[in-house]
């Protein structure tokens, strides 16, 4: 059986069952509010959101691989492009862009102009340290860990904090090279 | 006509998380199936190292006198393999179907613990349907 061609984010997004965007935004908002009530500390909430995202990411990655038919990426640059163009499109319906590559090619920024999680959201003064969309950083970290990449994902810019876009810095810390050696490793 | 003898699913560390028997000849008890699973996991890993082809992703097909073994490994390291009658066709597409069932009924089940043995009824039901459909399709040819 010949390998299937990789599908574009748009094609996949159009073919999956979709849910009402308002329901999605409200559900996520309810989760964040409940976490704030339960945990009270903004730092704790950030951690919990990241952990939740991690648990989502480790399961989501197989779904992503199956639906998109991507083959193994040859280097981290390709990985970041695939996450931004196919991953974000497929799951959130938004296209992200990749930029700010460092010299090694192990650290980049993924920039989101549009973010459905934060529709209608404003952060009050009491929650100034909160990374409202921290679940997204966990998702990326969890997903990449399942394909043997240990990464650190942090927020550089956050529109809810007054910046002009959402920017995630994705840094590749280590590849566990046993099964999927990248050419760079040799 | 039992084209498929058995199905194994192995997690990324080589542990057997699912085993289903469909034929009579090669029926195994739990210990033997665990042994086969870890054996296959190791052989698969060794084959990747031994391969003269760069970027080899491991054994996909093993043909023997009395059976064929078709293996699919996802990029996350989970392996799905079926032991079938020699010459059975369309096993790769069946493995893809099983992979998709795994993604839906196992991974999306929030109560399933990752890397642990699969105990998901919905997965079993849909898997049986898929195998049945495949069997019908094969015998119809």
Highlighted features:
heterodimer; A: 186 residues; alpha+beta; four-stranded antiparallel beta sheet; 4 strands; 16% strand; globular; disordered C terminus; B: 141 residues; 20% strand
Write a brief structural summary.
The complex is a heterodimer of chains A (186) and B (141). With 186 residues, chain A is α+β, with helices and mostly antiparallel strands.
What features would you describe in this structure?
The complex is a heterodimer of chains A (186) and B (141). Chain A has 5 helices and 4 strands; from the N terminus they run ααααββαββ. In chain A, a hairpin with an 8-residue loop joins strand 3 and strand 4. Chain A has helices at 9-15, 21-39, 42-68, 76-92, 134-146; strands spanning 96-99, 107-112, 149-157, 166-175. In chain A, helix 1 (9-15) packs parallel to helix 4, helix 2 runs antiparallel to helix 3 (42-68) and helix 3 (42-68) packs across helix 5. Residues 179-186 of chain A have low confidence and may be disordered. A 4-stranded antiparallel β-sheet of chain A has the order 1-2-4-3, with helices on one face. Chain B is of the alpha+beta class and 141 residues long. Chain B has 3 helices and 5 strands. In chain B, a hairpin with a 5-residue loop joins strand 1 and strand 2 (16-21). Chain B is globular, with a radius of gyration of 15 Å. The A-B interface holds A 1, 58-59, 61-63, 65-66, 72, 146-148, 178-180 and B 45, 48, 55, 57, 74-78, 92-93, 96, 99-100, 102-103, 107-108, 114.
